[in-house]
Specification:
Blueprint lengths: L10 H15 L4 E2 L2 H4 L18 E3 L4 H14 L3 E4 L18 E4 L6 E5 L4 E4 L5 H10 L4 E2 L10 H6 L15 E7 L5 E3 L33 E8 L1 E2 L3 E9 L5 H13 L7 E5 H8 L17 H8 L4 E9 L1 H16 L7 E6 L28 E6 L2 E2 L3 H17 L5 E6 L4 E10 L3 H20 L12 H7 L2 H17 L23
Parallel strand pairs: 2-4, 3-4
Antiparallel strand pairs: 1-2, 5-6, 6-10, 7-11, 8-9, 8-10, 12-14, 12-15, 13-14, 13-18, 16-19, 17-19, 18-19
The structure holds adenosine-5'-diphosphate.
The site of adenosine-5'-diphosphate has 21 residues, from strand 3, helix 5 and strand 10.
Length: about 525
């Protein structure tokens, strides 16, 4: 495939930019060969390969090198797309929004700069993966747990910046970021919060600043390259209790969410609660043609047989309680009382106590990646895409959303993988579309389904919390209060901080002046 360049960049200028980058990072760390770029393509998305194809990669080893590259990018008007580990699967992986953008791969910046055991935080460079952090904590016998996601191949920094959600009491990762070091699009280096004062020891302890606070501004935005991030970790608890229940019926999800919402809000349950339908298990552990070879979604009539075979209900509810065993017992009693009003079924209880081996999985802060296997569900060369609106935790809303999403999945011939993650005051509804990329009809239907889900949610005034590159413009468009005032604010800030439009053009639907015509 011929290399795509941004429309306003001549090959000569582009090559001059790459040569200048080599002067900063050394020749081996600037890549532009066809094969070099393969790992930076989006392996799972629905777009044509050219739509998000990068033109080259530059991999700096320090914040100073990031600054130098950023300044050169301004000189040569070369757009850059920062990635930490590039494993943002389901949302675009390592690929940039705009074809021809140069990947700024921060994977070499992989130092764990500090872990403060007494204060429960770490300070990380962007290339640190969840596995790196876990290995470091274990190897040094540090009694802190990191919140790891279902697929932990990515970086702690990249995931938090994208509002990644997960497990343990720090599972709302963006909320547990405390203090950033950022290279601005002009190349200037800033530290947010208390880090703005040289030598202040509270940088990673106190989230705000004197005056405006900017940590959140650098999340899901193309306004800076994060080169260090403070991240709070959960102190290793004395005990952890997992309460699990397989709930039999589809519509049970209404009372389940309503029973749990007050417990999340009051802090009885302090970590996000993950509820998934049986297909979440089936799709990660088998392939579609083992169950059904016909056209369309697996028929509902087959569900009882599938659930029985795996010992699953329609929904698997899993919640974790961490802390002193007496406190955990009291919290568990409250959860049980709330459920007893709706079902005589008991929870399956699994205790872990400090000193015992930790069960592998994110509930105990142990990284895993096997759930990525859902990409194989529909056939070889599979892909997946998430559609995840934010909802209030109300029975009526939840049941209506479920009914509508289920119907759309059925209409477009897809198996319904659905989950709900319960936050303190909201629900994140996760719909996962899994498809075979070699099947053009399935790809066409998957696009149709995603767009229908988005339109339908918008029709009920609900929006997504994160989206794939290909849908960033469309999702941004749904945030329309006062004639898209937020979009205008985003563009004003973007143009002020990035006047030459060199950082992450199109990220989250925000285009710098220079590329504004590219919005789709
Ligand atoms: P991970 O591998 O950790 O899952 P990625 O490296 O794929 O995450 O990053 C996901 C997205 O987050 C990127 O596409 C980019 O938009 C943004 N991002 C990642 N790292 C940084 C960073 N250090 N600074 C600014 N934005 C970043």
């Amino acid at each position: 495939m011929p290399r795509a360049l941004p429309h306003d960049l001549s090959p000569g200028r582009f090559d001059a930019a790459l040569r200048s980058f080599e002067g900063v990072v050394g020749k081996p760390w600037v890549l532009s060969g066809e094969e070099d770029l393969v790992p930076y393509a989006d392996a799972y998305g629905l777009a044509s390969p050219g739509d998000h194809a990068p033109s080259a990669v530059v991999a700096p080893a320090s914040a100073e090198e990031v600054q130098a590259i950023m300044r050169l990018a301004n000189q040569h008007r070369t757009p850059l797309w920062p990635i930490s580990r590039g494993k943002n699967y389901g949302y675009g992986g390592a690929a940039p929004r705009m074809a021809g953008t140069v990947i700024l791969d921060l994977g070499r910046m992989r130092r764990i700069l500090e872990v403060d055991v007494a204060r429960g935080y770490c300070l990380l460079e962007p290339g640190v993966s969840f596995y790196d952090l876990y290995d470091h904590l274990i190897a040094n016998r540090i009694p802190l747990w990191a919140s790891t996601p279902g697929n932990a191949l990515g970086s702690v920094v990249g995931n938090a910046l994208e509002h990644g959600l997960g497990y343990t009491t720090t599972g709302d990762r963006a909320a547990n970021v405390c203090g950033l070091e950022v290279v601005l699009p002009t190349g200037e280096l800033v530290r947010t919060g208390m880090g703005a004062m040289t030598g202040n020891p509270c940088w990673n302890l106190y989230k705000y600043s004197y005056g405006a606070s900017f940590d959140q501004m650098f999340m899901q935005s193309g306004l800076g390259v994060v080169t260090k991030m403070g991240c709070w970790l959960m102190p290793e608890p004395d005990a952890a209790l997992e309460l699990k229940m397989e709930v039999p019926n589809e519509e049970d999800i209404g009372w389940v969410i309503e029973a749990l919402a007050p417990l999340r809000m009051s802090g009885v349950v302090q970590s996000p609660i993950n509820i998934g339908n049986f297909m979440r298990v089936i799709m990660a552990s088998s392939q579609r043609d083992q169950w059904h070879r016909g056209q369309g979604a697996i028929p509902d009539a087959m569900f009882p047989e599938i659930m029985k075979k795996y010992g699953l209900g329609w929904w698997g509810v899993g919640l974790m309680l961490y802390g002193d065993p007496d406190v955990v017992r009291a919290q568990a009693a409250q959860v049980k009382r709330a459920f007893a009003q709706h079902t005589p079924q008991p929870f399956q209880e699994t205790w872990w106590r400090r000193g015992e081996p930790r069960p592998p999985g994110p509930t105990h802060g142990v990284p895993i990646s096997f759930p990525l296997r859902i990409a194989n569900w529909a056939g070889p060369n599979g892909g997946h895409l998430g559609f995840s609106p934010i909802l209030p935790p109300e029975r009526g809303v939840i049941l209506e959303q479920l009914k509508r999403a289920r119907a759309l999945f059925r209409d477009f011939g897809f198996d319904f993988y659905g989950g709900f993650t319960l936050g303190e005051r909201h629900v994140n509804q996760v719909n996962m579309l899994a498809y075979a990329k070699d099947d053009p009809d399935m790809v066409r239907r998957a696009r149709g389904l995603f767009e229908a889900l988005m339109r339908d949610a918008k029709g009920r005034n609900f929006g997504e919390y994160r989206s794939h590159l290909s849908y960033m413009d469309a999702v941004a468009e749904t945030y329309d209060f006062n004639g898209h005032a937020l979009q205008r604010l985003n563009e004003t800030v973007k143009d002020a901080l990035d006047p030459n439009g060199v950082l992450a053009p199109g990220k989250q639907g925000v285009w710098p002046k220079r590329y504004r015509g590219k919005r789709t």
